Amino acid sequence: MFIVSLANQKGGVGKSTTTVNLGSEVSRSKRVLVIDLDPQGNASKVLSNGETSFEFNDSISALFDKPKNTNIRDLIRPVMAKEKSINNFDFIPADYQLSRVIETSLTKINRERILEKHLQKIENDYDIVILDTPPNLSLTTLNAIQASDLILIPVDSGAFSLDGISPLLDAIDEIKDEDSNFLILRNEIDSRNTLINKFISSELSAVQERVLDITVRKSEDLSQANALSTPLRFYKPGSVINNDYKALAKHMLSMV
């Protein structure tokens, strides 16, 4: 089982959208589980085909609230698109109470390994697990980093999208030590914005060997798919942006 975290302390860079659509593409050939660790629950909404609230005991909140008494398998549900379940594609939703639960979990022993220990119990059930994290270094993000084989950091074309990278990399180095493994994904690229694209490239030059050659282009198709709570390949199979996620999925699978 290969575990990937989507992380960046800057919000709005496309973590949830990448999580959903990367998972969707990988599930064409592999068993995929997405775990939503962001109390905002954006990935959960899309993967459930529009649900906006989830029962506490059916969400990832239950796992962090009572890790010894919760069976992770009880939280797993199938991804839905156009009112049909998707083969090979499951998820665990986030609940809005996750923030409160995390605060009370700060005193737990081995709190940074709660998720890792539970994922070990299902290591033969899935080929790839994708973790969608909140835009901060909360306990859920630290759990995700600890459990992951790879941290994928989306960076969009916003001038401030790089602000969250430095503290995140510090956290990765501290937690993973010599096993640190991260890649940066240029996301929502608009080829017309040559100035900002050059600026982002320049800013990333110090970690150029970690920047993927694969990029995801900016598209109204993605905005519409998110609005309708549907992964892009089910909303608009003919969208050229699907090719970007296919390329990203192929790269992820090459690492497994």
UniProtKB/TrEMBL annotation:
Residues 3-179 form the AAA domain. This is Virulence plasmid ParA family protein pGP5-D. PANTHER family: P-LOOP CONTAINING NUCLEOSIDE TRIPHOSPHATE HYDROLASE (PTHR13696), PARA FAMILY PROTEIN CT_582 (PTHR13696:SF52). It comes from Vibrio scophthalmi. It comes from the Bacteria. Pfam families: AAA_31.
